[in-house]
Design brief:
With 560 residues, the chain is of the alpha+beta class. The chain contains 21 helices and 18 strands. A 6-stranded mixed sheet has the order 8-2-1-9-17-16. Strands 12-13-11-14 form a 4-stranded antiparallel sheet. Strands 5-7-6 form a 3-stranded antiparallel sheet. The protein starts with 26 loop residues before the first strand and ends with a helix.
C-alpha cells in the first residue's frame, strides 16, 4: 500500500531504544513552502521559550532585496479574501497579531462565531502573507528562523541531509511542497482516497478593487449575502473584496473560458453575464473587476500525515520525520478562509508537538512514530470535518436548483413575476437585517443597516434581470447560527405568493434552506468550522443515544 521511492525517500523501519539525553540539543525543523501555513508554523514554534531551535523555510517564490526577503513581483499568488476565525488568529503570538492586524488593515466579519471570543477578521491573502513574511524577519524571530529562496529539490534535500540534518520536515504551502510530496517522497504518504462527494462543488472567485470610487455598505452587503445562496461577498477593507459565485453543473465548462478574465474581457456568454449580475447585486461596477478565478474543492484522505524517513537525523534522533500541512495535506475548501483556518489549526498542533519533541530529545525520552499519534488523529478529524462542511455548503439539491432556476417559466403577465421575485428578495434581505440587529452588531455597523425602502431602491436601481431575481428567490436564505435566529424562520405568508409552476415544484423538490442540517449554520462569511449551530437532526440522535444509555429507548418505542 505504499511504494518505495528513491533512496532519499525510503520509509524507515521503526526506530527502537531510548537515546542518551542531550540537554543542549537544538530542534532542527525544515519547512517547504513559505505561505501562510509554513510561516505560522514557524512563528508559533519560534515563540516558544522551551529550548533552543532552528527553523529553515524554503520557498522559490521569494527573492532577496538587500537584507530583506520579499515575494517576487511575478510570483503566482492567490488574490482571495480570507476570513480568520477569532479562535484561530489568537493562536498567533501577540506581537504577530499586532503586525498582521494593524488599524484599518482588516475588516471584522459579523455575525460572531459561536466558538470564538470575538468576530472573525477579513483580509486579503496577499496582505496576510506579506505581513507574516515581515514578522518572521523581526529581531525576535530572526535568530531562530532562516529564510531560503532556493528550491527544495532532490539535490538540496541530499545536501541538507548530509551536511545540515534535521529532526522534522514540514511540507506546507505552494507548488514546492506538493512537488516534494509527490516526487521526492513519492509513495511515502500514500496516494490517498478522494472524498468524491465533497469534490463536486465549484465556485468562481470574483476579486475587485473599487479604488478611489468609494466603498460599499458592509452591513448591507452582509444582509444581501445571507439572503440568498448564489453569491457571497467578503470584504478585506472598504474598497477590496471577493465575490464567491456558486456554479451549477452546466456552468462549469464555460468557467474554464472565464478563468483569469479581467474587466477588459469582451465575452458575451451566459456565465459572464451572470458574473456581472452578481457584481450589480452588491453595487460593484464592472470597471472595478480585477480577476475571475475558477476554484474547485479538493479533499483527499491519506493513510498517514507523517512518516519516518530513512536518512540520518540531527543530534539525538536516529531518523527524522516528515509531515503534511496546508496545501500538501489536500484540504482545499471553496469557502473563504475555511481551508486556511483548518491549515492553521494543523500548524498549531504540529508546533506544540515539536516543542514536546525538543523537550524529549533533551531529556533522553524516546521519540518514535507513535509519538505523533495525537497529531495524526487531529489532522484526520480536521480533514473529515472540512469535507463534511464543504458537502453541506454545496448540497446536491441546491446545485439542482441553480441549474433549474433559469429554466423556470413565468406564468403571470409580463413583469408581474419579476416584481414578485423582487419583493421576496427584498423581504428576505430585510429579515436578515433584523436578525443582524438582534445579533448585536458594533454600533458603527448597526447604523449602516438599510431599511426595507433602501433595500428595494438599491435592488431596483441595480437593474437585475428577471432570471437573476428568480434565481436569488429560489435558492433561499442561509439558515444562520442561533445568535441570529431569535426572530424565527422567515414566514412564508408574509411574502408574495409564488407562481403556480414554482409552487408546484416546491412541493415536489427537497426544501433547500428550511433546515439547519443542510447548510450547517453558515454565517455571512461561511468561515466557521461547522460548530456554530447544531442541526436539529444531530440533536435528535444525541437525545436518542442518551435514552438508549438509560434503557429508556425501548420503553419509548413500545409506548408509541
Amino acid at each position: 500500500w505504499w511504494r518505495r521511492g528513491p533512496s532519499v525517500a525510503r520509509r524507515a523501519q521503526p526506530s527502537r531504544g531510548a537515546p542518551d539525553a542531550a540537554p543542549d540539543v537544538a530542534l532542527e525543523l525544515v519547512v517547504v513552502g513559505g505561505g501562510t501555513t509554513g510561516l505560522c508554523l514557524s512563528l508559533i514554534l519560534a515563540s516558544s521559550f522551551l529550548g533552543r531551535k532552528r527553523v529553515r523555510i524554503y520557498d522559490s517564490r521569494w527573492a532577496r532585496r538587500g537584507d530583506a526577503v520579499r515575494w517576487q513581483p511575478d510570483a503566482e499568488r492567490s488574490a482571495q479574501v480570507v476570513t480568520l476565525e477569532s479562535s484561530v488568529w489568537e493562536l498567533l503570538p501577540e506581537d504577530v497579531q499586532r503586525r498582521v492586524f494593524p488599524p484599518d488593515g482588516f475588516y471584522e466579519q459579523w455575525p460572531r462565531q459561536e466558538d470564538g471570543f470575538g468576530p472573525s477578521r477579513n483580509l486579503s491573502l496577499c496582505d496576510l502573507e506579506d505581513r507574516l513574511l515581515e514578522a518572521v524577519q523581526e529581531p525576535t524571530y530572526a535568530d531562530v528562523v532562516q529564510l531560503e529562496t532556493a528550491t527544495y529539490d532532490a539535490e538540496e534535500h541530499s545536501r541538507v541531509a548530509t551536511k545540515e540534518p534535521f529532526h522534522a520536515l514540514a511540507l506546507a504551502d505552494g507548488p514546492d511542497a506538493c512537488h516534494v510530496r509527490d516526487e521526492l517522497l513519492e509513495g511515502l504518504f500514500g496516494s490517498g482516497v478522494e472524498y468524491s462527494e465533497s469534490n463536486q462543488g465549484e465556485i468562481l472567485g470574483i476579486t475587485f478593487d473599487l479604488g478611489s470610487e468609494g466603498g460599499l455598505n458592509v452591513a448591507a452587503c452582509t444582509a444581501l449575502s445571507l439572503s440568498q445562496r448564489r453569491y457571497l461577498l467578503n470584504m478585506s477593507d472598504g474598497r477590496r473584496g471577493l465575490i464567491s459565485m456558486r456554479l451549477a453543473p452546466d456552468e462549469c465548462e464555460e468557467a474554464d473560458v472565464l478563468d483569469g478574465a479581467t474587466s477588459s474581457y469582451n465575452g458575451s456568454g451566459k456565465l459572464w453575464r451572470r458574473v456581472l449580475e452578481g457584481m450589480k447585486f452588491f453595487g460593484v461596477p464592472q470597471g472595478a473587476l480585477r480577476s475571475v478565478t475558477r476554484l474547485r474543492s479538493q479533499f483527499r484522505h491519506r493513510g498517514r500525515y507523517h512518516v519516518e524517513l530513512d536518512i540520518p537525523a540531527a543530534e539525538a534522533l536516529p531518523r527524522p520525520f516528515a509531515f503534511l500541512l496546508g496545501d500538501a495535506a489536500d484540504a482545499v475548501n471553496l469557502w473563504p478562509g475555511r481551508g486556511l483556518n483548518t491549515a492553521l489549526k494543523g500548524s498549531d498542533s504540529l508546533a506544540n508537538l515539536l516543542v514536546c519533541v525538543g523537550q524529549s530529545l533533551r531529556s533522553g525520552w524516546p521519540v518514535s512514530g507513535t509519538f505523533f499519534t495525537e497529531h495524526a488523529e487531529a489532522m484526520l478529524q480536521l480533514q473529515a470535518k472540512e469535507a463534511e462542511v464543504c458537502l453541506r455548503h454545496t448540497p446536491y439539491p441546491l446545485r439542482l436548483q441553480l441549474a433549474q432556476a433559469w429554466n423556470d417559466e413565468f406564468d403571470g403577465p409580463e413583469g408581474q413575476d419579476s416584481e414578485q421575485d423582487l419583493q421576496v428578495v427584498v423581504a428576505t434581505a430585510q429579515h436578515c437585517c433584523e436578525k443582524l440587529h438582534v445579533a448585536g452588531l458594533p454600533p458603527a455597523r448597526e447604523a449602516e443597516l438599510p431599511s426595507a425602502e433602501e433595500l428595494e431602491h438599491n435592488l431596483r436601481s441595480a437593474g437585475l434581470e428577471a432570471e437573476t431575481l428568480r434565481l436569488l428567490r429560489q435558492t433561499g436564505a442561509w439558515e444562520v447560527d442561533p445568535l441570529l435566529s431569535a426572530l424565527g424562520p422567515l414566514q412564508a405568508q408574509s411574502l408574495p405568493k409564488a407562481s403556480p409552476k414554482t409552487a408546484q415544484r416546491a412541493t415536489t423538490e427537497p426544501a433547500i434552506a428550511s433546515t439547519k442540517s443542510e447548510v450547517g449554520g453558515a454565517t455571512a462569511a461561511s468561515s466557521g468550522d461547522g460548530r456554530q449551530s447544531k442541526s436539529v437532526g444531530a440533536r435528535t440522535w444525541f437525545n436518542r443515544g442518551v435514552r438508549a444509555l438509560k434503557d429508556k429507548e425501548t420503553e419509548k418505542d413500545e409506548a408509541e
